[in-house]
Amino acid sequence: MGLANRSLVTIDDLSNAEIEALFSLADKMAVSLEKQFNLCQGKIMASLFFEPSTRTRLSFETAMHRLGGRVISAVNVGETSLAKGESVADMARVVGSYADIIVIRHPWEGAAKVVADYAGVPVINAGDGGHEHPTQTLCDLYTIKKEKKTIRGLRIALWGDLKYGRTVHSLAYALARFGATIHFRAASGLEMPDYVKRKLTTEYKGRLEEYETLDDVVKERPFPLDAIYLTPSSPHQLANIPSVSLQIELAKGVDALYVTRLQQERLNAEAEEKEMKNDYPVVDKKLLKKKEFRETVVLHPLPRVDELAYELDVDPRSMYFKQAELGVPIRMALIALLLGAKEIATPRKEESFTQPKEYALYQRETGVRCTNRQCVSAQKTEKGYIKPQFKIVSCRPLTLRCIYCDHEIFPPCIASSHWHEGRLVSKRYHSADSHMVRKIRPEHLMIFASAKDAEAHGFKPSSYAQPN
Ligand code: NCD
Questions:
Q1: 137 Cβ below 6 A of ligand 1
Q2: Is the Cβ atom of 133 under 6 angstroms away from ligand 1?
Q3: Do 314 and 179 have their domain in common?
Q4: Is the entire prediction scored with pTM above 0.90?
Q5: Do 333 and 410 fall into the same domain?
Q6: Total of domains in the chain
Q7: Which of 68, 142, 258, 369 gets the highest tally of CB atoms within 10 A of its CB?
């Protein structure tokens, strides 16, 4: 399938082969950026940035200008009708009727998906709250690949705010898909969210060794680790004897260090901010002197604050400015492909672990809603038309993943919609951790946020209604 008319909302919207082909196109375009001006002549890109941005917005706009297209923009919610209470869907429909492609950055998680659902033109997610930032990941992978020739088999450390940093979420998925080992070094309290970790192990079938299961030597070498992700392509031996082989693995050092700043604007309370600031890990000359970092390239999506010392700017291992510069050819290639101005050939079949898993969808209106306050589906202006939808990712325990923001919920009660077959007495609800969760067919499954919800729908407790 070609890329024309598609959207890029999550990094999983592109297969590995498509990402590789996009890189080849970016390589060709980078040779003469100024000679691509006839590719998108007559096309208009809407650049909607409702959160601060320097690199992402300006590199997208530069890319469109280089391709000969034009740009319309809105950079402040306060100056758009969103401030009057307009929904994201209505805005998307309207902007989609003006522009041929939309680039959107928005503070709500899942907002870019809503825009893609309603705009009728290709949409690129330039960052949706703390959720994902897939084009930054393209720049990151492209930079790493240029320096190290491949991603497969590399050891890459993600550093800093792994909880609210959207760049590290998209990047972790991509690294897992390309077969890299990931070392997690989070600032305390800012560890990778559970939903990201679960996706890494269920979707990409790798193994996550968490801090508690690591032995003491492993935990501290060459920096305090909170988890390590091993892909299915990691050496067999490594996957089987964790602590000894992990020590050997860590002694080899890291190939790339991906540093991120504290996402201060997303912290919940002042107290959280104070605590996080004090304990934030810093990358400086002293750290990079360790032998494990001899060959390590240092990346950062930028902007930096205090976590990356300026003294490193002259170090040949520092790649962050190059990474920002490469944003232009990458985004040129992406825009040209989504607008159908360029085509790429990709192989039909890919390795199985690079393909995200398909799950059954839960779409009934039975009271279950996403509990993430930053999710687009939880916003007052959006509730009227967004129907909560979830992927059923596990039955043990029953786990639903919001299709907008990926956050997971664990609802307590279930029932079967098949109760009515003649016997009202069987209109019963059960605990979600009872065996009934596997007995009820997915198409008959009804899920409730509480026993009260189940009762409001006319169900009475069964003998399996109490949690185990
Ligand atoms: C990042 C972002 O906006 O998520 N910046 C970027 O796009 N280059 C990282 C950040 O703001 O910390």
A1: no
A2: yes
A3: yes
A4: yes
A5: no
A6: 3
A7: 258
